[in-house]
Amino acid sequence: MQLECFIFGVITFLITGAQCEEFEVLAHAGSQAVLPCKCSYSFPITPVIIWSNAKKGTVWRKQKSGLQFWGSSWLQKGIQRAQCPHFKFEKGDYSLQINNVQEEDGGIYTCRVEHGVLVTETVVTLRIIKVSFVPSVAIRGEDVSIRCDVTPKPNGATVQWMLNYSPFVPQNAVSSTSISSQSVMFQTARVKLAGIWTCVFSYKGKEERVSANLTVKGIIQPSEDNAKVYAAVGSAVTLPCVYSPGLNPANPTWEKLKPEYIFKPVPDRLPASFSASSPSSQQPWDKSASLKEVGFEDAGRYRCSGTIKGQRLSQNMQLVTAKINSTIPSKKKGSVTLTCQLSDTSEVTDYEWVHVVYDYNGTKSIGSIQKGKTLSISKESEENRGEWTCRFYGKEGILGNVTHHIQLMGGLSGQKSSGVSRNTAAIVSLSFLLLVLLLVLAQMYKNHQRRKRIFQYPALETIVHTISNEREERERNRVKK
């Protein structure tokens, strides 16, 4: 091409004084491309300007009279995609601007400037770079091809890939760095592959970066297989299983896997407190499960599954349970040793004990903080009352915590003695009242029996009343004297 242009330039220059130049322009699909066409000299009046494409013919033409013509293929929704800024004509700049360039716009363009016998030609090769995915939206687990297409194809160009603005080195993938094969890379769709893919295209000392966003749908929480979920014994926990918004999996299931079958998982019995629906589940794509009360034996691997577009998707997670063991050393009866125990400590790097105290108003305050998996404290010391929380940490921060309550021995003894005293006083009072009641009942019974015997003899009753009346009269007379 360069040789042909050189020969054509020499011949036309000798005959008409024409000149020929060549340029390469790189642009990504959807952007604006500027094709250069500049003359080193200016004309008193606007010359004839003709922009043409090797395949589509005339792109834009301006006559001496000022009339302009556009090719029909460059009209998009009533707007011309190709134009030349008139305010630059006085400077000898006749560059062509193409808006929203497409793959089919790639090719060879010619700018011809005619001013009498003076003719200047500029040849521009426009290459369109586009990043695409097949399929455009990938389902997790299926194969996806990542393409960096360049139209027209160059020779000697190289391509490098970046994912989320960091260099990407494919693992267990078929890829190509030669643009001659359109730089196709095959990957198995994973959540980690979702994001902004950038094709770094290098050609003849120039570099162009083109990006596109890849969406991977499937189970997005947890984002990694065998992710760990930490829970304290006795608490409630949610096992996440969230699909991409808009996905409604068919036949969702939950399973607990036996620990001895690692390579070929075998279902185990689910815990008694297991519920296949989480209280937080409000959307059809949220299939999280919950355990209302975690037991230490509930630790292990769990798997959620569902069918999307005929493909069975599954995600494994591991429930790690935590508890605090309390032991009393044989040599120190007044002390207690607390041990933070986890069903899996593979991710734990550090332990921390935090003392939490509540006053009579319920105000919370943080006391001492100590390091280590075990903690030895005195149960008889008032300073150690309240809650002791064991926090366990990993490389990226806190993983979880579990709490143990400490009650004072002295406080318990005092409460017991006080309770016994109150019970004794209540028993004595009740016994006294019962005794008085028995005496009253006995006296009432005696009076009843005496009256019963007297009423059996009416004459005797009359005599008794007469004697009683006479006695009362004598008493009154004595008082008068």
Descriptive key words:
8-stranded mixed beta sheet; disordered N terminus; Immunoglobulin-like; 481 residues; 7-stranded mixed beta sheet; alpha+beta
Give the helix/strand layout.
Blueprint lengths: L1 H14 L3 E10 L4 E3 L12 E6 L3 E6 L5 E3 L4 E2 L2 E2 L1 E2 L12 E3 L8 E9 L2 E17 L2 E3 L3 E9 L6 E6 L2 E2 L16 E5 L6 E9 L2 E12 L1 E3 L5 E6 L4 E3 L2 E2 L6 E8 L9 E2 L5 E2 L13 E3 L8 E9 L2 E17 L7 E8 L7 E9 L5 E8 L2 E5 L7 E9 L2 E10 L2 H46 L3 H23 L1
Parallel strand pairs: 1-11, 12-18, 20-28
Antiparallel strand pairs: 2-9, 3-4, 3-10, 4-5, 6-7, 8-9, 10-11, 11-13, 13-16, 14-15, 14-17, 17-18, 19-22, 21-26, 23-24, 23-27, 25-26, 27-28, 28-29, 29-32, 30-31, 30-33, 33-34
What does this structure look like?
The chain has 481 residues and is α+β, with helices and mostly antiparallel strands. The chain has five domains: 2-127, Immunoglobulin-like; 135-217, Immunoglobulins (Immunoglobulin-like, Sandwich), CATH 2.60.40; 224-315, Immunoglobulin-like; 328-407, Sandwich (Immunoglobulin-like); 426-481, no CATH class. It is built from three helices and 34 strands. The protein has helices spanning 2-15, 409-454, 458-480; strands at residues 19-28, 33-35, 48-53, 57-62, 68-70, 75-76, 79-80, 82-83, 96-98, 107-115, 118-134, 137-139, 143-151, 158-163, 166-167, 184-188, 195-203, 206-217, 219-221, 227-232, 237-239, 242-243, 250-257, 267-268, 274-275, 289-291, 300-308, 311-327, 335-342, 350-358, 364-371, 374-378, 386-394, 397-406. Strands 1, 3, 4, 5, 10, 11, 13 and 16 form an eight-stranded mixed beta sheet that branches. Strands 20, 23, 24, 27, 28, 29 and 32 form a seven-stranded mixed beta sheet that branches. β33 (386-394) and β34 form a beta hairpin. The longest helix is centred in the C-terminal third of the chain and has 46 residues, at 409-454. It is elongated and about 175 Å long.
